[in-house]
Amino acid sequence: MNLSEALILVSNGKAVRRSNWHSGIHYVFLETTMGISELYICQTSSGGTANWPLFLRRGDWLALDWTEVNPADFPRPASGQSEIQQTTTDPTETSDPPPPRARRAPRPRKAKPKAPRKPRSSAAAKP
Fold this sequence. Notes:
This protein is α+β, with helices and mostly antiparallel strands.
């Protein structure tokens, strides 16, 4: 099916995906929160399963390999679909990185003392 047919299914509460998507991209679905409907994509990454707003690539617009799927066949994140939500408990995934170390100010350079100048001997000064 093409994208138009896939979007009609999604608007009727179904889930769709492209058959050539890798296994980390599961399906596209419609989420309605506070009266606003938005397309989301359920995706698995190294941090767990998350829902991201759908951004189609050029190849997705004219593709003819869209298929209807059962979302129960794929992992699903916790509730709160309207917000991007990681299902991980690893603090390294959710905490901010430590601030960079403060750099020390450069030391002021000391001027080297100039060598004393030797007096010039003139030809007239010779005896």
